[in-house]
């Protein structure tokens, strides 16, 4: 029997750990990890008509319209690089985009396997961001509680100064979370009705990174077996 592609979406608020978990999911299932930015850059690099039009908007500092994004998403998801499946990260961001994705998948003959939602307590999300320190040249990230540098405000490797980003404050983070949940809750409810939502509940216990990965794998395997 032909192996079905594994088609996933990962949701989670800022600082939920989507990026690090996505790397593990991609590795296990040998599927492409895609963000909207990845798909736009690929379309531009391949010099497709849609990519060239999107580039004009981006060069002018304008948002790429939803209809154009929809066409580019369809192009990439239907490409040979997604034959085994894909992991969408940061798309869809709105109900309109969720409906667009439904249409795209119907047109290219693929079905979602699961929608993974990382359900992290808001207090923990704020803690992760507010204590964050960054070494700009390398991108190395430290945290005053979870990963403090050996010398306060100095990079462990180079000894150079660390910075705290101006938007890494509790006030800004609360605003970002509110904006995220305003859109995400509607989208998650949409996928729940389709029996595609798998909620990774991280509120009751303080799981480490590997434990979260195993929770995700367990839930995704259940969804694969139920297809």
UniProtKB/TrEMBL annotation:
Annotated keywords: Kinase, Nucleotide-binding, Transferase
An annotated Gene Ontology molecular function: AMP kinase activity
InterPro entries per UniProt: Adenyl_kin_sub, Adenylat/UMP-CMP_kin, Adenylat_kinase_CS, Adenylate_kinase_lid-dom, ADK_active_lid_dom_sf, P-loop_NTPase
One Pfam family it belongs to: ADK
CDD domains: ADK
Highest taxon, organism lineage: Eukaryota
Claim: Chloroplast is one of the keywords in the record: no
Domain Adenylate kinase active site lid: 132-167
SUPFAM superfamilies the UniProt entry points to: Microbial and mitochondrial ADK, insert 'zinc finger' domain, P-loop containing nucleoside triphosphate hydrolases
PROSITE patterns hit by this protein: ADENYLATE_KINASE
PANTHER family cross-referenced by the UniProt entry: NUCLEOTIDE KINASE (PTHR23359)
Family: Belongs to the adenylate kinase family.
HAMAP family assigned to the protein according to its UniProt record, in alphabetical order: Adenylate_kinase_Adk
UniProt cross-references to NCBIfam families, sorted A to Z: adk (TIGR01351), PRK00279.1-3 (NF001381)
Protein name, entry field: Adenylate kinase 4
Upper classification of the organism: Eukaryota, Metamonada, Anaeramoebidae, Anaeramoeba
């Amino acid at each position: 029997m032909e192996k079905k592609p594994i088609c996933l979406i990962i949701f989670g608020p800022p600082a939920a750990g989507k990026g690090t978990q996505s790397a593990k999911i991609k590795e296990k299932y040998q599927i492409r990890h895609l963000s909207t930015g990845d798909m736009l850059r690929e379309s531009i690099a391949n010099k497709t008509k849609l990519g060239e039009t999107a580039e004009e908007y981006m060069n002018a500092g304008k948002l790429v319209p939803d209809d154009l994004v929809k066409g580019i998403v369809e192009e990439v998801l239907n490409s040979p690089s997604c034959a085994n499946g894909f992991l969408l990260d940061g798309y869809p961001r709105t109900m309109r985009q969720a409906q667009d994705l439904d249409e795209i998948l119907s047109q290219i003959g693929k079905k979602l396997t699961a929608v993974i939602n990382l359900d992290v307590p808001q207090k923990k999300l704020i803690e992760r961001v507010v204590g964050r320190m960054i070494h700009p040249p390398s991108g190395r990230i430290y945290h005053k509680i979870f990963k403090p540098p050996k010398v306060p405000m100095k990079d462990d490797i180079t000894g150079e100064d660390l910075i705290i980003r101006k938007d890494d404050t509790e006030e800004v983070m609360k605003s970002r979370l509110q904006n995220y949940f305003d859109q995400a809750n509607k989208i998650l409810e949409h996928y729940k009705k389709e029996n595609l939502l798998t909620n990774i509940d991280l509120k009751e216990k303080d799981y480490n990174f590997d434990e979260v990965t195993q929770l995700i794998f367990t839930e995704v395997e259940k969804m694969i077996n139920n297809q």
